[in-house]
Specification:
This protein has 118 residues and is mainly α. It contains five helices and three strands. A three-stranded antiparallel β-sheet has the order 1-3-2, with no helix packed on it.
């Protein structure tokens, strides 16, 4: 299971537990209230761990791209035939500005990062 799916699953569990907690509070069932309160705390811890892990991986990838010696904007013509471009430039990584990585890098145009000039 990917990190994204696991994070979504934990958020769904949190939402269900919160709904059950509200129902238990309305009934006045103290045992269930404490159980769901503890569950919510555990789920929140797991969610924070997963988001930290996700941010760490994104930061690591961002640093790897910034360490590449060459980067430039990818023209519209090159974007139209991306397969040809990737075959001609070994190690090319293309980043779109609307992806998480693109937003992290604060890109405004589609940019290519490569170990050699292209």
């Amino acid at each position: 299971m990917s990190m994204k799916q696991e994070l979504q699953q934990q958020k769904n569990r949190l939402n269900k537990s919160q709904l059950k907690l509200d129902a238990a509070k309305s009934r006045g069932d103290d045992a269930m209230v404490t159980k769901f309160t503890n569950d919510i705390e555990d789920i929140n811890k797991k969610i924070s761990q997963l988001t930290h892990k996700q941010n760490f991986a994104l930061n690591k990838e961002r640093k790897a791209l910034l360490d590449m010696p060459f980067s430039r904007e990818i023209t519209k013509q090159e974007q139209a035939d991306m397969g040809k471009l990737k075959k001609s430039v070994k190690g090319l990584v293309v980043v779109h500005p609307l992806t998480k990585l693109g937003k992290e890098l604060r890109l405004e145009v589609v940019t290519g990062f490569a170990p050699k000039e292209f």
